Amino acid sequence: MHSVVCVKQVPDTSEVGIDPETNTIIREGVPSIINPYDLHGIEAALHLKDEFDGKVTILTMGPPQAEAAIKRALSFGADRGILLSDRAFAGSDTLATSYIITQALKRIIDEERVDIIFCGKQAIDGDTAQVGPGIAARLGWNQLTYVVGINEVNIDNNEVRISRKLESGKEIIKAELPALLTVVKGLNEIRYASLPDMIRGARAEIEVWGEGDLELDESKIGLSGSPTQVGRIFPPPEREGGEIIPGGKEDPKGAARVLAEKLIGKEVIPNK
Ligand SMILES: Cc1cc2nc3c(=O)[nH]c(=O)nc-3n(C[C@H](O)[C@H](O)[C@H](O)COP(=O)(O)OP(=O)(O)OC[C@H]3O[C@@H](n4cnc5c(N)ncnc54)[C@H](O)[C@@H]3O)c2cc1C
Asked: Could you read off the pLDDT of 182-206 as tens digits, one per residue?
């Protein structure tokens, strides 16, 4: 059982800002984290590794500092880390990103069978949820999205049975392997890294693959290979603070009257 987890390094969005001049995310000085959904993909892959004595490969596309995300993933117990990093990849939109990642996956699959690819449901910075389905479509693999439970993996029958999270409930689906799963947060509890694995992760040599290491059509990568145009990016307007009606404890009826007057816009005469 060999799983590949696509892991994106993202800015910690609780602290991220947007440059109003350039309409881009201010990344300087902002801590980077593993996209939270991807952590659940890593955990699911490690669970399968434990169950089937398998292997977990981590695949990340990003600048050289994204190596830190791979090292963290290795510290949980993953076996191999590959960073796709090249100036030629910069400016890639989701179409170009999914193309480059797919070409890397094809190289991995040529080397050894891959049974399941895990992606997060979405990245918390880009938020498009397009990369996972984009990869599955390019590979021609079954894609199972919004996975909230992996009910059974049957290697003999080459099948996986999963639960998908829907607005109105859950859907249980059986699909043939290999398959790509995009996962949501309820899937599992993320483990703590053991000390030996933390040391192993910190010391690990990460393979870096650039443009020359993959079979790529130059017209499909980077900014020039990206048909998406970002018109404008801006933070939502700051919400004004609410109004506090005083005296609720001492005079609840009086406070309720003030509230009712505000809501209906006229004076309320209390019943005697
Ligand atoms: C015109 C344009 C230019 C851009 N230029 C840049 C740029 O220069 N630098 C930049 O960082 N971003 C850039 N972006 C953003 C970039 O396209 C997206 O971040 C990227 O395509 C992933 O999309 P997403 O964040 O919506 O991921 P989603 O589709 O929401 O992610 C879903 C899942 O796919 C996987 N995944 C997504 N991205 C990666 C990745 N990089 N590596 C591994 N797995 C991944 C993860 O499992 C993730 O949970 C640009 C976008 C546009 C439209």
From this structure: 999 999 999 999 899 899 999 999 9
* Residue type present at position 242: G
DSSP class of residue 241 equals P
Ranges of beta strands (E only) in 39-195 are 55-61, 80-84, 116-120, 142-154, 159-166, 169-176, 179-183
| Residues in Cβ contact with 37 at an 8 Å cutoff, skipping those fewer than 6 apart | 120, 121, 122, 123, 124, 182, 183, 184, 185
Distance 270 CA to ligand 1 centre (A): 59
Tokens representing residue 263 in the block: 């809501």
Q: Report the pocket of ligand 1 as residue ranges, CB < 6 Å.
A: 6-8, 35, 37-38, 59-62, 90-94, 97, 101, 119-120, 122-123, 125-132, 226, 228, 230
Q: Closest Cα to atom 49, ligand 1: which residue?
A: 120
Q: Which domains does the chain have, with CATH numbers?
A: 2-225 (3.40.50.620), 239-272 (no CATH)
- Residue 220 pLDDT more than 90? yes
Other Cβ atoms within 10 Å of 247 Cβ, number: 11
Rounded to the nearest angstrom, the distance between the alpha carbon of 186 and the centre of ligand 1 is: 23
pTM metric for this prediction? 0.87
83-123 tens-digit pLDDT? 999 999 999 999 999 999 999 999 999 999 999 999 999 99
For atom 38 of ligand 1, the residue with the nearest CA is 8
